[in-house]
Structures are given as C-alpha cells and as structure tokens.
Design goal:
Distance between the termini: 47 Å
Oligomer: single chain
Strand order of the largest sheet: 2-1-3-4
Number of helices: 10
Structural class: alpha+beta
Order of helices and strands: EHEHEEHHHHHHHH
Largest sheet: 4 strands, mixed
Strand content: 5-15%
C-alpha cells in the first residue's frame, strides 16, 4: 500500500492509539485538516513514552508534532514550523498564517499562566496564580468584544491559524484548570465563552480534540497536586 504524501505524527492517548492531550499536536492537526485534502494525509498517533525506532530516525529529538512530506523528502518538527510549511505549499484557503495583529497579544499569555498555576507547588501562591490566569482570560474577552475583532473567531469569520493555536489551550484551561484547581473561566467573560463554544462546535476541533481524561492524565504526569476536583 503506497504512502500518502504527508504523515502527521501527533501525541497518542494513553491507549497508544487515540489522540493524546498535546495542544501543539492539535494545533498542527487542525491546520492540516483545514489546508490539505484529507486523501493526502495520514495522521499517526505516537506513544511518547515508547517511541518507535522509525519515529526517532525521522525526528531524533522525539518531540511531537512532526510532519513528513514524502514528495519533497522533508521532515518538519514544531507546530509553528509545520503551519508555516503547509502555508507555503498550499496557498488556499487563506488562514491568515502571517497575522500579527492585536489578537496575538490578547491570547498569548493564557497557556503560560495556566501552566504556572498547575505546576505550582506552593498553596499560598494559588490565589495570585488564579488571578493572573483570570486576568489573561479577561484580556482575551476584551479583545473579542472590541472593534478590532471581526469575529466570531479571532481574525475573521472562520477558524484561522491563530484559532488553531488558541482553542486547544483554552480547552486545557477548562478541563485541567477545573480538575486540579477548581478554576473556571469567569462567567462574565461572555464573549470568550461564546468564542469557545463556537470553536468547539466546529468539525475540525471535534475531530482533533482529545478526551477530557487524556488532558487530565497528561497534566498528571507533572505530579500536580489536586486542590479542588
């Protein structure tokens, strides 16, 4: 059986077969589905705890995601490099790959603040870390309500490259933030919650999103303390 032109290696779930919790893998997977005809791509989940020799030959660092272009004999690692490579080879549809407007700044701090909260080992720091995360989420909510946002997504009226990056991270906020720290996106972030709802209802998000339990298992590997379930 002949190979497809592209192979997309993503983090596998705990069963070694399903889609795992990596938001960077989901970013690359979403973008690939939006840009490249399905018949040209094979998605291959990789068990990162037991990487195959073949995978390590392709990518000695062993990280995911990885895109292989057999036609051009190229191996591209890193989700940002993957989306750039696909953009260079598939001009249509235009997913605003090189967008650098205010939505980037408005969304860039969320995942770092989530990681700081979840990896924190000092109970006394939790209120401040929750406040910091809520502040980043409110900044994104403010952008979604402002005139610069042409919505309902971050850049225009459909999912673009930036959404492929942001929506998976927001899913981690919802699932891991609540499970480990009892954190929930503030109810007054109405525009943000609506953005998430619309994004998560798209086919491309649903088809690439891991199960909630995989997100929890992924963060559990960092020996995170559970404050509130």
């Amino acid at each position: 059986m002949s190979k497809t032109r592209f192979e997309m290696y993503v983090k596998a779930g705990s069963d070694g077969i399903s889609i795992g919790d990596c938001p960077f893998s989901q970013r690359a997977n979403m973008y690939t589905q939006l840009k490249i005809p399905a018949e040209l791509v094979t998605v291959i989940p990789i068990d990162i705890t037991n990487k195959t020799e073949d995978f390590l030959k392709l990518n000695p660092e062993g990280k995911v995601p990885v895109l292989v272009d057999h036609e051009k004999n190229k191996v591209i690692a890193d989700s940002g490099a993957i989306t750039s490579y696909i953009h260079d080879n598939f001009a249509s549809p235009d997913l605003h790959q090189n967008y650098s407007g205010p939505a980037v700044q408005a969304s860039s701090g969320v995942f770092g603040k989530l990681a700081a909260l979840l990896k924190n080992s000092d109970p006394a720091s939790i209120p401040k870390l929750k406040e910091d995360l809520a502040k980043e989420l409110r900044a994104l909510d403010d952008f979604l309500k402002c005139a610069d946002c042409e919505g309902p997504f971050l850049v225009c009226d459909r999912i673009c490259e930036l959404d492929c990056s942001v929506l998976p991270k927001l899913r981690h906020v919802q699932v891991a933030g609540k499970y480990f720290q009892g954190f929930q996106i503030p109810e007054d972030c109405v525009a943000l919650l609506e953005y998430i709802r619309k994004g998560e209802n798209t086919d491309v998000f649903r088809q690439t999103c891991p199960k909630d339990e995989e997100i929890i298992k992924g963060w559990s590997r960092h020996n995170i303390m559970v404050v509130n379930k």
